[in-house]
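Hi support team,

I submitted a single chain yesterday and got back a structure, but I'm not sure I'm reading the token output correctly. Could someone confirm the output below corresponds to the sequence I sent? I've pasted both exactly as they appear in my results page.

Thanks,
R.
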Amino acid sequence: MASTTSAGRAELDDAQDGFRELLAALNPYVDELVHQPTFHHFLDLPVELRCLVHEQYFLDEKKSISCRNWPHLEFSQTFMDSIRHKRITASFLPNLCLTSKQLQGELFTCLLEAAHFEFANCNALGCVLLFLCSSAMPLRLPLTLRKLSLKNLNGQRKRLLFKAFNDLFLKESQELAQSGIECYTAVLPVFPRLRELTLEFYAPLMYMSRTWNGDEQDPVHALSIKDYLGRVRLEPILGLQELQRVTIIGISGNCNKSDLVTLHGIKIIDDGKADHLTPISLLGGQIKEGFKAQNRNVAVTACLQYAPDEHVEETFT
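Hi R., thanks for writing in. Yes, this is the structure output for that exact sequence:
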């Protein structure tokens, strides 16, 4: 095998040398010097360029889970439950009829490094990791994943609290938020080659009356995210050495209506206030300062969605 590889490389070098000699021979007969090209081994090129060669194959292949919506791969808890209970039997990776393990590995690398992995919550992320680790696939996901979005990180999406049970709901919501934060804290170091990271948080709504009437006049208030953010640790983010971009998203009020509020068309009081998401801006600023202290130029952006047609995007410098 070694001698065959050496012979192939020698033939390649001979071909390159011959092409250079041809260009040198042509130079005296042209007005401008013919620049000799620089040759690169394909596997030494950036993955963004290599992926262009395989892109159409990934777009056309729709049988495997990873190619159905490539390059945007969304994973929800329902989706992962369907896989676990055998309601979805498709393989995660495409079936490649390739005799070369090196070429197969190259295709898998391009497929996964160019993809944007989006998880509906930390439970979905945990299910995916468990599914991949328990399978026999030749997959090194932690070393290939470059773009990651963790949605509903604090577990407050479409959550409606009740004032009559405020203490109970507040404690439960804070525990739920902290559980998500601990999950993210444990997971991020597993992906040391992340380049783009998006974290999404929600502020819940609160029903102020003691009984539920289903009336459109029932008082439902938009809340600040302050008490429902959880204690976010910066170390897992700052420890990602290849990170280039961080986006923190905060969503509140009408943008986070529960199913009951939507069903009864209830008007939300104190809606459309950017102040409800001020802690998200503060978190973005803290992350940026952390990177500055490391002398790293990482782009950090906070997106505040506090009304359907109103949002603020802040880029920290």
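A quick pointer for reading it: Confidence is low (pLDDT under 50) at residues 1-5. Let us know if anything else looks off.

Best,
Support desk
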